[in-house]
Amino acid sequence: MPAPSLPLAEANLDLEHCTSCQACVELCPEVFGWDETTELPYLKTSQGPEEDLRKAAAYCPKDCIQVNAGF
Ligand code: SF4
After folding, report:
1. Is the CB of residue 55 less than 8 Å from the CB of residue 28?
2. What is the pLDDT of residue 39?
3. Is the distance from CB of 64 to CB of 13 less than 8 angstroms?
4. Is the pLDDT of residue 37 over 90?
5. Ligand 1 centroid to 24 CA: how many Å?
6. Which of 54, 56, 61, 65 could form a disulfide with 28 if both were Cys (CB 3.0 to 4.6 A apart)?
7. What domains sit in the chain, N to C, each tagged with a CATH number?
8. Mean pLDDT confidence for 20-49
9. Does ligand 1 lie within 6 Å of residue 21's CB atom?
10. Is the CB of 61 under 6 A from ligand 1?
């Protein structure tokens, strides 16, 4: 779990165009897990550190990740 002082954000995942590159899993493993069966990422939890989530969203080549802060 992140420290309470870290700003949290919500993540949404739309896998329609996912290329299975696993960048999201590497950049924010607190939130994104890897499903070996489907070879797609999944949300382990809907909330995580905003900075890591924004990094994952920026690196995703297909814009699959939406980050909602300030909920
Ligand atoms: S970074 Fe984007 S394209 Fe890559 S595995 Fe994650 S959701 Fe899929």
Report:
1. yes
2. 98
3. yes
4. yes
5. 6
6. 56
7. 8-69 (3.30.70.20)
8. 97
9. yes
10. yes
